[in-house]
Amino acid sequence: MGPHETEDRTERFPELHAALLETAKAWCREPYTWLLGGSCGLLLQQVELQQAPRDIDIYADITAAKMLHKSAPGVGLDVPVVDRTGPYASLLSHYQVGNCALELVGGFEVWSRKSWYRTEIEHVLVKHAPEAMVGGYTVRLMPLAHELLFNLMRGRADRYEPIARQIRQRPELHQPLMVLLGQQNVWTSRFRAEVEELVGFDWPQ
Description:
Helix content is 37%, strand content 26%. Helix 4 runs antiparallel to helix 5. It has seven helices and ten strands. With 205 residues, the chain is α+β, with helices and mostly antiparallel strands. The protein has one domain: Beta Polymerase, domain 2 (2-Layer Sandwich). It is globular, with a radius of gyration of 16 Å. A hairpin with a 2-residue loop joins strand 6 and strand 7.
């Protein structure tokens, strides 16, 4: 297993595995960039989870999300609409794929703890995305650097602590993107200090 590949750990969860296969089949041949995030993405990157993944979170830029909606797997429950819930903003749509819920999140932004983070899938995150095999399909995953920052912003210690442990095992894989995200977004000095303590390396401005 290479540094940017990871084994399929979803086979232990047959309903989830089937839904991921259907999603990959629907979207892997589309010319639009998307990344699998959330608990499924963490599972496929060997991050310890306190409970099994219950749904599928797909991230894309806004234009890509609009196009992916047209060929979405399963049953569409709504159409993409601008959603502002708490500190989050995105173009959001929902689907039922087999027995699993799927969220398609376009142009995701978070405002929290006096910090601001905007996801850029095509120009930033996909260049650092590890790959996983799901059945016969290659699926790209949201990088752990993103997952650490996002979960720290929303106070999910059950997520960011095991993510940080995983980053510490191979810091050289994650530090370049961490530095880039540190430069391209807005973070307080206190938040930066917390990140450095978690990952064990400097996070310069």
